[in-house]
Amino acid sequence: xxxKGTVTHLSQKGLGVVKNSENNLSYFVYGAWPGDIGEFEVxxxxxxxxxxxxxxxxxLVQPSAHRQxxxxxxxxxxxxxxxxxxxxxxxxxxxLEQKKNRFLYAMKRVGFEDQQFSIESILPSEQVYGYRNRxxxxxxxxxxxxxxENSHNIAPIQDCIVLNDSCRKLLKDILDQLPNxxxxxxxxxxxxRHFIEFDDDMQPNKLIVNQKRPFKQxxxxxxxxxxxxxxxxxxxxxxxxxxxxxxxxxxxxxxIIAKSTCTSIIAYEYEEHAIQALQQKRLPxxxxxxxxxxxxxxxxxxxxxxxxxxxxxxxxxRCGLKTHHSFFTAFSSLKTIYYISCNPESFARxxxxxxxxxxxxxxxxLIDLFPHTPHIEILAEFRKN
Length: 385
What we know:
Elements: E1 2-10, E2 16-20, E3 25-30, E4 37-42, E5 52-62, H1 92-110, E6 134-139, E7 144-147, E8 154-156, H2 165-175, E9 194-199, H3 220-235, E10 242-246, H4 254-258, E11 264-269, H5 272-281, E12 286-290, H6 298-306, E13 311-314, H7 327-330, E14 336-341, H8 344-356, E15 359-367, E16 377-384
Parallel strand pairs: 3-5, 10-11, 10-13, 11-12, 13-14
Antiparallel strand pairs: 1-2, 1-4, 2-3, 4-5, 6-7, 6-9, 7-8, 14-16, 15-16
Helix pairs in contact: 1-8
């Protein structure tokens, strides 16, 4: 079925939303931007709520005033195209506006009202190309690229303009190894592909197929801003007692906390290789411990160690805090929480939980780590009401 319509806004996942006046259904559309007028073709069955379905843009009748020609040749509406930077179709100012809208929608959806928090301007990325310091590509031994959201197959590439110079060189070194019989076939026979992770901390001879690299924030300059934000926040405290850090990784923020006036730090992480890397840094005042932070009764187990802490710093993965049970019973002496999040939905859920337990949002700073994507980083300070 085909229909004409105007894209009114973006979904939480960054897809265009267009309503079909003939059946009163709204459709999610890849490669569309608010203000686009076009012809669309339905591609999927109606979703469970019977209000939404998926469609594809078949003809752009009138482009949005914010639409631009993508700088990358691999961005297109073809099923074989790369979908790693879906917002490259729009100017950067418009991208930032939509990222803020995404955050606001997530907050209002859980129950927050505008007056319950304020947002400073989004901190834009100093580089909109050549910023990314890490990458994961997929290969079947013949082609190499990213998985296309349109087809779920490998979208072959020969370059990637959002990678920094070091990573682009590593990508070229990998491409030069194709075709590679050793990369054909897979333990996952259905997908028949391997993954290769690399970052600007490694040399070409250190590449290992199907092995994850230690996590690091993907935009070096923006990560410096994040670290500076936390450093300034901690410096504003005349006295800092015991600090608990959850999801510390290999110490990106632990290094900043260790420079503060706090008396001690207990840093918890659920990935063993990350906590081992942090332990090797031998930071002053830091006790780095492995813990399954997603375990149902984890906060009861940690209560004795964390109950006298006055500051909590957490930087969880996209899922946020999976368990709230006994959280504030364990953290009974907290005065301040610094929450660093990469997902508006899980942040909003956890922020609402904090609010229900007497905490207010003192400050929110949004930071754009990944231009041309729906991703937005959130830095938040909570204080006890």
